[in-house]
């Protein structure tokens, strides 16, 4: 540890060093540099290595009870003034071992130490402990980390949960934005969900469903990227220190988002569903929430994934914008699937937004038998969406599974990027 008390007041420094002392008492060895310690902190150490300018050792060995071994050693040198009663031995030690003191009493503290019993005792201990006991085996550890993967994950999750709870500028703001966005969407499209007797009304409903998914999803992906980018810098340092492995960290980073996404889904879903005026059945309401949740989740994981694969936040934002544009263009709403050119239809199937749109439209309109009687079309709502959008009956469940697969894919890609990529060059 390199000066762990720097910048701390007396109380905080005492708390830190008490923790270090407790660590030592478990059988571990702590090597620590210290700057102007108090008496209590100095006497918490067992041994001292003191060097003068040039790196020459002038004392090495045990401190003793109330630093008595150290005090006896320096007071045994002719010309060194004795320590006053109650004086800090750390301060006294530094005062009596200066270059000016060497010149004053005409000695070389490094030379005196090399000829002392203290040096011989330390040298003997080094030689003795260098040779392993007979029959002993090399010290081996089965893993780099002190805890197993599950313990690392739980500790990382606890830490990330605290960080998120103490980040109102991110979480509270996005919940406020969710509420405001839901109210805006609900009031703009007030009660249009019941207008299903014409193709124009039907397209309006599908536009609402499309907007409801894309509006907050893109916001989630964009807002999570700065958080992940900042935390990645902290992760590099803690990973290098061997605190935890990449996969438990990535799992905790992904899982900590879930409660907030659920909260967003409930707020957004309840407000928009009833203000827009969709069909008031428990099944359709729950399906609406399910597809909303899956959409917000894959957008959030996508934002995390892009940051994981890019060096800078700016580059991640540029790539994300291009992805959003393509997804919206080829989602099956602006250009319905039957009208997408065959050389671009492949993107429709790997586009998560298209599966969201398919699933949420089928969940709300896939069983509606309301008749549409127009010059260009005569039939039920169910037949209209199958003929004009290419949404086959019975594919709603497949849409949910595909969206789950996208969530897993984006999260796995983020975890792998954390494990194998390192953009820090220091």
Q: What does the model show?
A:
- The protein is mainly alpha-helical.
- The protein folds into two domains: 10-130, no CATH class; 151-420, no CATH class.
- The protein is 62% helix and 4% strand.
- The chain has helices at residues 10-24, 39-42, 68-75, 89-96, 99-105, 109-114, 117-130, 149-165, 171-188, 199-240, 246-255, 258-276, 282-309, 313-329, 345-349, 352-365, 381-389, 396-420, and strands at residues 47-52, 56-62, 371-373, 378-380.
- The strands form two sheets. A two-stranded antiparallel ribbon has the order 1-2. A two-stranded antiparallel ribbon has the order 3-4.
- The protein is elongated, with a radius of gyration of 34 Å.
- The model has no long low-confidence stretch (mean pLDDT 89).
SSE layout:
Blueprint: H1 10-24, H2 39-42, E1 47-52, E2 56-62, H3 68-75, H4 89-96, H5 99-105, H6 109-114, H7 117-130, H8 149-165, H9 171-188, H10 199-240, H11 246-255, H12 258-276, H13 282-309, H14 313-329, H15 345-349, H16 352-365, E3 371-373, E4 378-380, H17 381-389, H18 396-420
Antiparallel strand pairs: 1-2, 3-4
Helix pairs in contact: 8-11, 9-10, 9-12, 10-13, 10-14, 10-16, 11-18, 12-13, 13-14, 13-16, 13-18, 16-18
Mean pLDDT score, rounded? 89
Distance between the termini: 20 Å
| Rg, nearest Å | 34 Å
Which residues form runs of ≥5 with pLDDT under 50? none
Number of discrete helical segments: 18
Largest sheet: 2 strands, antiparallel
DSSP strand tally: 4
Write down the secondary-structure element order.
Answer: HHEEHHHHHHHHHHHHHHEEHH
Task: Tell me the fraction of residues in β-strands, as a range.
Answer: under 5%
The coarse overall form would be elongated
- Helical proportion, percent range: 55-70%
Spatial order of the strands forming the largest sheet: 1-2
Structural class: mainly alpha
Number of domains: 2
